[in-house]
C-alpha cells in the first residue's frame, strides 16, 4: 500500500498579526487528510470513515493501516500488516536494561518517553527521514510501545517482563504481557475498541507537538518523544488518570452531589469534561460509556459507572460542558484491573498511530512551524555589572 501525500499546500491565510490567540484557539495551523472532528455535531472521522463504524467493525491494526495508508487494507494487506507488528514486538535487551536501572517510582509516561528515546539508536533507520523508512520505523515503534508499558509494570513490581505473544492481537497481547495470562475475548475486544477510539484526533496538543518537531526536519523518534511528553499533562491525555482519582475520592454515588458542590464552589476543573473543539458530547465518550456499563455489569460492580453517571448529570445540569474521551475510559480501564498510572500510557499506545501518520503528512509538505510571540517584557534595560548587583 502507498502512503498518501499531503492534500495540498495551504493558502496562506491573511492573519491580523496584532491579535494574540491565547492557546492558538481558532488558528488553523495545518491541513490534514487524516482525521476530522465535527465539533458541533459531535462526530469524528478517520480518513473520512465515521469513528462509530470503525469502533463497531474494525481493529486497532486495521485502523492504523487506514490512518497510515489512507484506505482500509484488503485481507492480504491486513494479514501482512499484522504480521509485521507481531514480528516487531520485542524490544532490545539494552532498552530493558535501561528500564531495570530506572527508579521504581518513575511514572510510566516518563518511562515511555525515556524508552522511546532509547529505542532510537537501535533502530536501523533512525536518521532516515524517507517515507519508506518512516513507515518501517512506525511499525517498529507502534509494535514496541505496549511491550515497554507492560515490561515497566512488571519490572516495578519485581517481576520479569513477559515475552510478547506471536499470535495474539495488538490489544490482547498488551493485556497478556501485563498479566502473563491470555485475556478473555471480551477484555481483548474492549481494549481493542479503546485503542481504535484513541488513535487520532486532528491537531490535538500532542500531535501538534509531533508535527512541530517534524517540521524542523528532526526524526520520527524525536517527534514521538515530543508527543509523549505533551500527552502526559492533565489537560490532555493525563486527564483519564485524574478522572479515576476523582471517582475514587468521591468513593460512593451518595457522595457525588456534595463533592460536585465543593468542586464547583472551588472553581475546580472537572476532569473528563470540556474540549477545545467539541461543543457537543465527544462520540468516543458514548462508546466508552457503553463499554464501562458492559464491564461494570459483567464484574458485578456498578460503583464507578454509577458515580460517573451522576457526575455527568450534575455537570450537564450546571455547565454547558461536553463529556470528553477521558471521562469513561477511566472506569473502563479501572474495571479491567489496569493500574491507574497506565491509563495515559495506553492512550499513547494507541495515539502513536496518529502521531506517526501526522509526521508523514508534515514531511510531505513541510514548512517550519514557528509562530510569533507578543513581547510584553521591559525594553532597553541597562546591563548592571555583577559587582554592582548587591548580595
Ligand atoms: C480540555 C480543556 C483543556 C479545553 O480547554 P480550553 O479550550 O482552553 O478551555 P478553557 O480551559 O479556557 O475553558 C473555558 C471555560 O470553561 C471552563 N471549563 C472548561 N473545562 C472545564 C471543566 N472540565 N470543568 C470546569 N470548568 C471548565 C473554564 O473554567 C473556563 O471558564 P471561564 O471562561 O469562566 O474561565 C478544558 O476543557 C479542561 O481543562 N478540561 C478538563 C481536562 C480534560 O478533561 N482534558 C481532556 C481533554 S480531551
Residue-averaged pLDDT: 95
Count of folded domains: 1
Which blocks of ≥5 consecutive residues have pLDDT under 50? none
Shape: globular
**What is the element string, with H for helices and E for strands?**
EEEHHHHHHHHHHHHHHHH
At the first level of CATH, what is the class?
Mainly Alpha
CATH topology, by name, is Citrate Synthase, domain 1
Walk me through the structure.
- The protein is mainly α and 391 residues long.
- The chain has a single domain, classed as Citrate Synthase, domain 1.
- It contains 16 helices and three strands.
- It has a three-stranded antiparallel beta sheet with strand order 1-2-3.
- A hairpin with a 4-residue loop joins strand 1 and strand 2 (43-46).
- It is globular.
- The mean pLDDT is 95.
- The chain binds coenzyme A.
- The site of coenzyme A has 16 residues, from helix 15.
- Coenzyme A (COA) binds at residues 23, 235-236, 239, 269-276, 321, 324-326.
